Amino acid sequence: MAKVTTEDESSIEEIMRKVHHLEVKARRLSRESFSGEYHASFKGQGLDFEDFREYQHGDEIRFIDWNVTARMNAPFIRTFREERELSVLIAVDISGSFDYGSKHYSKREIAAEIAAVLAFSARHNGDKVGLLLFAKEPILYLPPAKGSKHTLRMIREILATTPENKQTNLAGACDFINKTLKQKSLIFFISDFIDNDFHKKLGALSQKHETIALRVFDPFEENLPNVGKVNLTDPETGEQSIVNTANSNVRMAYEKLTIRRLEALQKTFTKYKIDHVNAATDADYLPLLHQLFKTRSSRHA
Questions:
Q1: Residue 201 belongs to what H/E stretch?
Q2: DSSP 8-class letter at 71
Q3: In this protein, which residues make up the domain named DUF58 (predicted)?
C-alpha cells in the first residue's frame, strides 16, 4: 500500500462535520429511497437448500428429488431460498484530478456522498461492504464487513485520505481487486476515468465481478470556457502551462480530445456490458441512481 499523509486538527474537525452530515443524509436516502431498489437490483450469489415439498403442476422437473419421491411414493421437489448476502466493494479514485470542483463541490465530495448512500443501502440489506482507495497505487483497503463504525470509517477515509503520489492508475486498481477478492463480489467503481490503458483491465474486472461504473465529472473539464489566457496546473503532476482559451482552435482541439476519450470509455462499457452512471458535480445524482437501480431490477424481473 502507498504511504498516506495525515491531516491537521482543524482539517480533521472539518472532515468529521462532513462525515456527520453525510451520515444523516445517506441514512435517510438509503432508508427512504434506495433500500428496496437496491434489494431488487442486486441479487444474492446463489441459492441455499431450504426444504422438500410435494410436486405441483408447473414446478421445475429438474428440482425433483428422486430419493424422497421413492420413499413417499409421490413426486417431491427441493425448495431453495436466495442466498441474500452480497460482498460489496466500493473502489474510489482519490487521485489529484478528483479534488477538482469548479463550483460548490469537488468530485471527491460527490463520490463520498454516492459511496455513503450505497454503503448504507447495502448495510440495510445485510450485505458486507468494503472500501478501496487508490491513486497511483492502492492506498487503503478495508475488507468487506458489517457495522455502523465500519461504514462511518469508510466515509471518513474517502474524505480525509491524501495520497503522496496523486497520479491515477486505474489498471492497477483493477488488478488489485482481482487479486484480492477471491469470491465473486459487487464492485462500485467510482472515478473520473481520466487515465490511459485501463480499458482491458476494467473489462477483466467485470468478467470476474459484477461491476458498476460511476463516473464523476466536472462540466468545466469537458468544455473549456472562453476566459482568455489562463495558467493551468495539472493536479496530478504539478506541471503548469499557459493556455489561451480565447483561441477557438484551442477550445475545439480540447473538445475533440474530450469527445474521443468519452467515446472510448462508452465503447468499453458497452463491450463488457458494464452498467454505468455519469454524475456531474453541479447536478443531482439521485435520479441517476434511481434509474440505474430501476433498469437493473427490471432486467432481473
A1: helix 199-208
A2: H
A3: 51-259
Supply the mean pLDDT for the chain: 84
Rounded Cα distance, 52 and 135, in Å:
51
Average pLDDT (101-111) is: 89
Are 89 and 190 in contact by the 8 Å Cβ rule? The answer is no
Query: Could you give the CA distance from residue 250 to residue 219 in angstroms, rounded to a whole number?
Result: 17
Beta bridge partners of residue 271, listed in sequence order: none
Which of the residue ranges 47-51, 94-98, 131-135, 255-259 would you say has the lowest mean pLDDT? 47-51
| Interhelix angle 170-180/199-208, nearest 10 degrees | 20
Query: What confidence score (pLDDT) does residue 39 get?
Result: 63
Three-state DSSP at 229 gives: strand
Assess contact for 174 and 202: CB atoms under 8 A: yes
Q: How far is residue 66 CA from its own chain's centroid? A: 45
Cell of 43: 441479487
- Would you state the torsion angle of the CA atoms of residues 12, 163, 4, 108, taken in this order, to the nearest 10 degrees? 40
Cβ contacts of 281 within 8 Å, gap of 6 or more: 101, 102, 103, 104, 105, 106, 107, 110, 216, 217, 218, 219
* pLDDT of 35: 59
Q: For domain 4-42+85-300, give the CATH number.
A: 3.40.50.410
Q: What is the mean pLDDT of residues 110-121?
A: 91
CA dihedral of 41, 44, 49, 53, whole degrees rounded to 10: 0
CA angle, 180 as apex, 179 and 184 as ends, to 5°?
A: 90
292 is written with which cell numbers?
Answer: 440505474
Residues sharing a CB contact under 8 Å with residue 143, sequence separation 6 or more, in sequence order: 130
Cβ contact 17:156 at 8 Å: no
